[in-house]
Write a structure and sequence with these properties.
5 strands, alpha+beta, binds adenosine-5'-triphosphate, Heat Shock Protein 90, 28% strand, binds magnesium ion
């Protein structure tokens, strides 16, 4: 769904997907990923790499999405999951608030950190106990 915008902006993708199955509501989880992918694409107007990694340990299945955008300021990073917080001209600020709620409904967690070099990474943690 985000491919046309990615093509226009010259964004390439990189994927490393472990053979894991996440149990949950497919439509809601699609909405979580769509919001994160769209934010990542919007953060890279001049192109870059969108990296998606699915991995697992004994506790969690983790989906991480990294971009090479501008990253998130110290002031904003505390607020990005608040409803209606947006730094965009036409943003509603609901994308991540909804994603956060959906992750809670799956007994999961959503976290973000700025990357060492450029951009930021959103991590979705799904507890394994739920996903056997
Ligand atoms: N990948 C990202 N890189 C940089 N900043 C981000 C990224 N993802 C989110 N943000 C910041 O978090 C804010 C909130 O994101 P959220 O998706 O909730 O709302 P929005 O994108 O502004 O509006 P909407 O999703 O409703 O169109 C953004 O306005 C932006 O400041
Ligand atoms: Mg958004």
């Amino acid at each position: 769904m985000v491919t046309p915008l990615m093509d226009i902006r010259g964004i390439r993708t990189h994927e490393e997907i472990a053979d894991e199955v996440i149990k949950g509501d497919p439509e809601l989880l699609k909405q979580v990923l769509m919001n994160i992918f769209l934010n990542a694409v919007q953060a890279m107007p001049d192109g870059g790499i969108l990296k998606t990694i699915v991995s697992a340990n004994c506790e969690f299945i983790t989906v991480s999405v990294s971009d090479e955008g501008e990253g998130i300021s110290k002031e904003s990073i505390e607020k990005i999951f608040d409803p209606f917080f947006s730094t965009k001209d036409k943003g509603t600020g609901l994308g991540l608030a909804i994603a956060n709620k959906i992750m809670q409904c799956h007994n999961g967690l959503i976290k973000v950190h700025n990357n060492d070099e450029r951009g930021c990474t959103f991590c979705l943690y799904f507890p394994k106990g739920q996903n056997k």
